[in-house]
């Protein structure tokens, strides 16, 4: 599994022959790319409807994976295909996306869209992406990546996502103000019991400016066994 961070919450995930792009927003200072520089993925995963997460969604010809409300919104506003199998997915569900299995989990955040129309965009989400179908039986051979979306610290990370979905790596927001800050994100790393942790959703706007090394220090202080990887924009990590 290849993980490429394009700044903010934008990740390109490759599982086998399948490319997934999460929360495309290339108007951020961590990437040197524009949406035009990026090849169309097979699937476009959208955690929620805020503009800094779906801003460039209309630039890609891909199957949308999102809640039904967000899927309908991007179809209406951006002309995209509605979603996997012609309908959105929802919290707790797993869909097969090419060589990947995508499980949607809740995120503690808000949701909405600034348009001339009123949209109920449903619940915000995160995604757990694996190369094997999740089951109750532990699978040490699987490779699994958790993109937490915009979220605060929540006990589901400790009670459900960590022990049952078993991510090997997690990308967590550390910007504070709108999401978790470094110390709460570090607790999430400990609860998730991941081997690798990546900070995201920071330094894009003044309210979320952070030193990612503070996150690394907090992970150590939490007693988590994870290795923190502070990626440069457009850098790839092989999981």
Automatic annotation (TrEMBL):
SMART domains (alphabetical): Lactamase_B
Pfam families, per the entry: Lactamase_B_2 (PF12706)
Domain Metallo-beta-lactamase: 7-201
Signal peptide: none
Molecular function GO labels: hydrolase activity
InterPro entries reported for this sequence: Metallo-B-lactamas (IPR001279), RibonucZ/Hydroxyglut_hydro (IPR036866), UPF0173 (IPR022877), UPF0173_UPF0282_UlaG_hydrolase (IPR050114)
Keywords tagged on the record: Hydrolase
Lineage top rank: taxon: Archaea
HAMAP family: UPF0173
Similarity remark: Belongs to the UPF0173 family.
UniProt-recorded name of the protein: UPF0173 metal-dependent hydrolase ACFO0N_00025
Organism the protein comes from: Halobium salinum
């Amino acid at each position: 599994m290849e993980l490429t961070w394009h700044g903010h919450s934008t990740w390109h995930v490759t599982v086998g022959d399948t490319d997934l792009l999460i929360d495309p927003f290339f108007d951020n200072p961590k990437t040197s790319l524009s949406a035009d520089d990026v090849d169309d993925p097979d699937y476009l995963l959208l955690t929620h409807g805020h503009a800094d997460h779906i801003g460039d969604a209309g630039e890609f010809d891909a199957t949308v994976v999102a809640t039904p409300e967000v899927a309908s919104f991007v179809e209406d506003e951006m002309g995209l295909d509605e979603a996997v199998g012609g309908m959105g997915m929802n919290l707790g569900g797993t869909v097969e996306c090419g060589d990947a299995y995508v499980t949607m989990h809740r995120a503690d955040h808000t949701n909405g869209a600034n348009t001339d129309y009123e949209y109920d965009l449903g619940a915000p989400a995160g995604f757990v992406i694996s190369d094997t179908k999740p089951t109750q039986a532990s699978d040490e051979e699987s490779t699994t990546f958790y993109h937490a979306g915009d979220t605060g610290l929540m006990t589901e990370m400790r009670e459900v996502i960590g022990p049952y979905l078993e991510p090997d790596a997690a990308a967590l927001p550390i910007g504070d103000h709108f999401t978790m800050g470094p110390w709460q994100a570090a607790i999430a790393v400990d609860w998730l019991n991941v081997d690798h942790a990546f900070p995201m959703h920071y330094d894009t706007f003044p309210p979320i400016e952070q030193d990612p090394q503070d996150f690394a220090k907090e992970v150590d202080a939490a007693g988590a066994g994870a290795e923190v990887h502070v990626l440069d924009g457009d850098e790839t990590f092989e999981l």
